[in-house]
Amino acid sequence: MGDSDKVIKRTKSQSESFAKSKNAKQSIRLKRQPRLQRQDSIGAIEELVQCGICLEKLTDPKMLPCQHTFCLACLQSHLTAHRILIKQRSLDDQIAASKRPVAIKCPVCQKKVNLEKGMESLKELPKNLYIDSVLKLMDGNVSPISSKANDNRCVKCQIFSQQQEQCCQHCMQVFCNVCWNEHLSELESNLSILSKQVDESTVRLEHKLENFENRCEQLVESIKEATLHKIELIKMDEKRVLEDVASIKREGRVNYNSIHSKIQEMKDKLSSDSFGTNPGKVFSFINLHRETSRLLTLVNHYGEARVIFDPELCRLDQDTEGIYNDVEENETVNSSRTVNSLERFEVASQYYRNRSFVPNLVWKKCPRPANVGVPPWDNSLLYIAATDTHTVLILNRERRKLEGRLSSSEMLYPQGIAFSKKYKEIYISDKWKHCIHVFSKSGEYLRDMLVKGNGLGAVRSPDGLAMGPNEELIICDSGNDRIILVNCQTGEHLSTIGLVNNKTTLNMPTGVALSGDKIIVADTGNHRIKIFYLDGRKLHEFGALGRGKGQFRSAEVVAVDPSGFILVGDGGNARIQIFKPDGSVVKAFGGSSQGDDGFGWVSGIFVTPEMDIIAADSKKRCLRIF
């Protein structure tokens, strides 16, 4: 080998090495590019140039007025299938179709496209220039596949035929005779899938029927329960009205006996022959005449009173003076009591409606008050659960001065307050310590009660408290969604309120009050007020979630006035609402719209025997007395 050959060989080897090195660098650069990004870009382009009919790359792309683009051949095949379907219809349908302009629907959006010239209109459709440019970049300058306007092409094998009549009404595609039979076999094989879907739908329908019937049964139970509650209310109203009638009847008999005795006395006086001396006879005669006239007036008025029964309100009314005023002034005590018994609700309603509710006392800088209470042994004192200081403040309402406080190292978050008149004790619920603290009247810490229910566990986050008629302590066990009654001395569990079939119907009750033999519960989580008998039976309920009158957003606390009206601290709506015992709204005052003068969050409420309303506001840290 000569020198020239060696040089040529060495140069060729260097060139090959350089080429390999260049290719390797290019390969490394390609590998460094984000593979997912390249795949996403390629996938997006492929989807852009895909025909929505044949799902292949577009050829001769034509754009419909709705901006969707398809192959010209596919659109022609779509129109051909439409014509074949018309030929397969009845003669009347064909005649009607011939009178209408030729039209097809976009396979994607189903928008109607009129084709006045038939196949020629398809050819005249504008090209999608953007997609056509992308196709040229992908494949070079490739001319589109042309098809004859009058030819029919099988969608499966792409065979052309001049006399093709096989068109699937389901797929809107044209098939040749061979592919048509295969397509029919495929459709027939899908019947098993349809049969399976029908069977599954039958099972699903049965489940839906069962669920529907269960809901109907629940409705029936709710209707029966509501009807029983209304019957109980009607029976209570009946008992009350009958008692009023019996009272009226008894007073009528008393008045009759009184008048009758006066008549006998008058007879005795008139039958007496002794009129005294001659000057005294005239005065005696005048007195007898006056007494007789008064007696006759009583007789004339007796029984003229018309006591009317109002079936709508289920109460008694009187339209004239009568039995209630038939007795003399010294005998009117019982009659006034009866009038008050009949009219006390209307009088109290009018009283609340006419009040302006301007506070007589506003104590700001109150350390985040919770519930409040007035002890039965001293009406001038007010106990305030101060959560920030972990104490209970004692305020003298008359002197407007703090007189003391209840405190203990064991008390973490005082919330509810109740008093025992019999034992002279004060009960404080502690939400963080999950117990009830007991203090004496003098403020001495006595004990705590970690109340446990019968197999229901200890109390959790106790809130509102009340004292029952038999000195049983009523506790809002808000963490366990129930109301429990316990022995105030031992903490022994007596009964539970709010359970139906061992399931609670309450949701975080936070307020409780007593009205006679009924327990009023603020069911905060359900935004309702529920009324129960002491034995746990629910009497009725009212309220709902909302901002309107009679609606609540967290009915936080509840109190009952001497007339039986229910006052609710509507915390979320920053107001106090007043209701009749039947749940009808009488008055609402407060509200966030009043700005600084309004409530922030009503956290405590109490009504004194003098009808003073005491309201605590934990958000604005103040106390108001109306």
From TrEMBL:
Residues 184-229 form a coiled coil. Pfam families: NHL, zf-RING_UBOX. PANTHER family: E3 UBIQUITIN-PROTEIN LIGASE NHLRC1-RELATED, RING-TYPE DOMAIN-CONTAINING PROTEIN. This is Zf-C3HC4 and/or NHL domain containing protein. One of its GO terms (biological process) is proteasome-mediated ubiquitin-dependent protein catabolic process. One of its GO terms (molecular function) is ubiquitin protein ligase activity. InterPro entries: 6-blade_b-propeller_TolB-like (IPR011042), NHL_repeat (IPR001258), TRIM-NHL_E3_ligases (IPR050952), Znf-RING_euk (IPR027370), Znf_RING (IPR001841), Znf_RING/FYVE/PHD (IPR013083), Znf_RING_CS (IPR017907). It comes from Asbolus verrucosus (Desert ironclad beetle). Gene3D superfamilies: TolB, C-terminal domain, Zinc/RING finger domain, C3HC4 (zinc finger). Residues 1-28 are annotated as: Disordered. Keywords: Coiled coil, Metal-binding, Repeat, Zinc, Zinc-finger. Residues 51-110 form the RING-type domain. Residues 14-26 have a biased composition (Polar residues).
